Amino acid sequence: MGSRKVSQIGGDQSGSLCAHRTEEGGTTLKDQVIPKATAKRLPLYYRYLRILNNSGKQKVSSTELSEAVQVDSAPIRRDFSYFDEAAPLELSGYGYDVEALMNFFAKTLNDDHMSNVALVGVGNLGSALLKDKFHQSNSIRISAAFDVNEDIVGRIVDGIPVYPLSDMAEQIKLQQIDIAILTVPAESSQPIADDLVKSGIKGILNFTPARLHAPKSVLVQNVDLTNELQTLIYFLHANSQDENK
Ligand code: ATP
């Protein structure tokens, strides 16, 4: 693991998340490497801190945070220790300063910067995501969707224009889009990912079961719903077998 010193944390000029995948699967925030598991928990902390801040709460303890986000307090303390130079330390007995910590996570997660996102493939899953609009964040906006289906192209679906694939490169540049969501059939995903990379996309949220090849500079986050469900089913069975022993 790299240095724990944080000289500066936050969004860069390009507006992209200051995170890069390391070979060990960790993530770097500027000059610091944090484990992937920690990076995955940051949005959970941030969302809860926003709720607390909106309700006027000023301090939160790691025990309260632990109960709310359902993560043990030990990993929470360990997670926060990665940021102890930038985030206010837990004041002994009084907890963390809610507003300061929330602002710190907002910067870390680039939530103080609007991210335009593209969605490719307006099928069942794509349409559901267009409808959802990622409303739990104020800083994510799907600004363009793309498809090959003539029946959908040219229409506005849930407030979002659907363009033909031939307009993808132009729109991505015009709208300064850094991130794309991929909800196309698996077999079409690699050529589309190649086109997205050529158009300057920096991150792909891949909902297809295909494993994509992309340059190291492009982050690919896979969301394989079937895989997740199968893992859950596996652990459910493993747990019930343990209970029967
Ligand atoms: P899902 O539930 O996965 O969205 P679906 O049955 O609605 O499935 P798929 O066949 O998976 O539809 O296709 C998803 C969407 O991707 C469709 O709207 C389809 O028109 C679109 N699509 C298919 N091939 C391409 C491609 N090469 N480029 C862009 N969009 C594509």
The number of helical segments is 8
Q: Taking all residues together, what is the mean pLDDT?
A: 82
The residue ranges in which pLDDT falls below 50 over 5 or more consecutive positions are 1-28
Instruction: Tell me the number of strands.
Output: 12
Share of helical residues: 25-40%
Order of helices and strands: EEEHEHHEHEHEEEHEHEEH
Classification by helices and strands: alpha/beta
Cα Rg: 20 Å
Shape: globular
End-to-end gap: 40 Å
Describe this structure in words.
The chain is an alpha/beta fold and 245 residues long. Helices cover 39% and strands 19% of the residues. Strands 8-9-7-6-10-11-12 form a 7-stranded mixed beta sheet. It has a 3-stranded antiparallel beta sheet with strand order 1-2-3. Strands 4-5 form a two-stranded antiparallel ribbon. Strand 8 (156-157) and strand 9 (160-164) form a beta hairpin. Helix 1 packs across helix 4. The longest helix is centred in the N-terminal third of the chain and has 19 residues, at 36-54. The chain is globular. The model is unreliable at 1-28 (pLDDT under 50). The protein binds adenosine-5'-triphosphate.
